[in-house]
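Record Immunoglobulin domain-containing protein, 275 aa.
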Amino acid sequence: SLTNMESPLRVLLILTGLTGIHSITTVSRVSVKAGDSISIPCLYGSQYTNNVKYLCKGYYWSSCKYAVKTNQHISREFSISDDQIKRIFIVTVNDPMVKDTGYYWCAVEISGSDVREYFHLSVTTGTPSLYTDQKITGFEGDNVTINCHYSNLGEMRWCKLGRSCVTTGYSGSIDGTGVTIDASVPNVFTVTMSGLKTESSGWYQCVKGDLQMPVHVTVTKPPTTSKYYNYKSKTLVSLDLKKILIPLSVLIFAVMVALFIWFMLKRHSKLLNSD
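=>
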């Protein structure tokens, strides 16, 4: 089983001293349905900003094989991108098959022994044990909800990669953004992030037991608005200028067309009368 495999792997890593400094942070176990692509974020230290990053596949580090590298042509099966500002490189397994199940290593090339961290990918023919949308977008100041579907046992958490977590049954905050978890519905826990800030953007994880599912949250500025004071209700009302300007432009155009037609008809009438 996976648990039985992980134990000797961890022992081997400890005995051979290959765990090294935890310079890379990533998931430990993920599950995906065959045919559905999955992206895995790998957070690294600032000292490795300009180094080559890569994904290696194999149970043992000493015999793992390159899957994709940032300085080489991207393969059809795997792709990789490096965000040097946020110091995260993302590896994507495109259209995975059951045979792609196994251990992978997020790694950075350095002189000497490369730094790395492994994770296990399970590719299933049926519904994965933990899944959700990997891309979530929200406006600054608003709320977003993430539905984490699961079928396995264990504690439920919402974590920011490399940072803190909020556990089911408790409210908390991550980087100043409020987080609550609702587990009242069977086989799904709903995460609500409230009062979003621009710094709320980044990679998070649905966590259930020993499984994780990476989720990227993007926070953008809200649409341009203007405010006016409603004296009747004594409230400050926000107006979305885009929603007003577009229909207003259509109305003005319609009026101009109507005036043009009226002018042409009037002119035509005068010409008839003069004849």
